[in-house]
Amino acid sequence: MQTVRHSEHTLKTALISKNPALVSQYEKLDAGEKRLMDEAFRPDSDLFGPITLHSQSDWITSHPEAPQDFEEFFSDPYRKIPSPQKHSIYVQCIGLLGNTRSISEEYVKWLKGYCEAFFYGLTVKLLEPVPVSATRCSFRINDNTQNLQIHAGQILKFLKKKKPEDAFCVVGITMIDLYPRDSWNFVFGQASLTDGVGIFSFARYGSDFYSSHYEGKLKKLQKKSSSDYSVFDNYYVPEVTSVLLLRSCKTLTHEIGHIFGLRHCQWLACLMQGSNHLEEADQRPLDLCPICLRKLQSAVGFHLKDRYKALVRWVGAESIDTPTVTPEHSRADPLSLPKPVEAFKEWKEWITKCLAVLQK
C-alpha cells in the first residue's frame, strides 16, 4: 500500500493558484466556503485525506497523467460551460434498469434527484426510455464473461442525434454491459467531451456479476439478422441494492464531471480519481476534494452550503431496507420501492461535518 501525499504549499497552489485574478476570486468566497476549501492543505484534516494506492494495477500507477490544478482547469479554452441557453443535463435510459418497469422508473428518478443535488443549480431532465433496438447499435456476447454487450461508440452517435437544443449534455445509462471496439473486453463508459454526450453501464456493479452463478450468461447468440434485437427482450438485470445505487451515483457524477472538463484527480482522495477495477472504484469517495469542488463551483455557480444541504435531503432522514424483487416478477408489475440509502450512511455523516465547517 502506498500513499500519494503532496506538500501543503503544492495543495494550496493547486487550489488557489498564483494568478492574481484567481487568487482574488478565491478571496471573494464567503468565510465558511474558504474555511472548508482550506481543509485541502491542512495536514490534520479529517475531511480530506491523501490518495491511497492499494496495488500496482491502480489507475495512477498504470495510467500516468499530468495533474490538473484549478488554474489549468479555469484557463482551458476547450472546456464546456453551462449557459442560460444550455443549462440542462439530460438522462437517457437504454433498456430497463430494474427487473420490472416500475423499479426501472424509480431507479432513474433516484439518479435524476442525485444529479440535481450534485450539480446544484442545473436542471436535470429525463428523456423517454428507449429499448436497445432504437439505437440500432451492434451487440455481441463477451467471450470471457458470456454476457450481452452493446457498442458504446454507436450509442454515442445515437445520443448526439437526440441532443435537445437546451442540453448542456446528454448521458445514456444502461444495465447492459458495453464494449468500445471488437478488440476490447469491456468498458464501464465512454464520452465525447466535444459533443457533450456519454454512455455509462452499471451492469458490472451488481453483486453477482463476477460470481460463478451469474444469471446473465448466454452460451450462444441466436441472431436472425442484424436488426434482430429479440435477445434483449428478457435480458438479465441485477437486483436493486443500496450498493448498486451508490456505485451508479458515483459513476454517473464522475463521468459527467469529465464532460465539465474535470480531469482525473491526483491531489487528494476524490470522486474524480481514475479507477481500473471495481475494488478501486469502491475505495473512491462519493464526493469531490476541495480542488475539484472549486472547479465545479466555478462552472456551475452554486453555494457550497446549498449543494450539501440538497445532497443531505436526497439521502433522506432514514435508511430503508430494500424489498427483494425477483426476475420472475412481471416487468409491468406496479411495486412501491423505497430508496435504498443504507450504503450512503457514512457519506451523509461526512456531509454533515462539512456543513458544520461551513456554518461555524
TrEMBL record:
UniProt keywords, alphabetically: Hydrolase, Metal-binding, Metalloprotease, Protease, Zinc
Pfam annotation, one family: Peptidase_M54
Gene Ontology process terms (BP): proteolysis
The keyword Protease is annotated on this UniProt entry: yes
Cofactor dependency: Zn(2+)
Gene Ontology terms, MF aspect: metal ion binding; metallopeptidase activity
Domain of life from the UniProt record: Eukaryota
Residue intervals passing through the bilayer: none
Annotated InterPro entries: Archaemetzincin, MetalloPept_cat_dom_sf, Pept_M54_archaemetzincn
Family: Belongs to the peptidase M54 family.
Purpose of the protein: Probable zinc metalloprotease.
UniProt name for this protein: Archaemetzincin-2
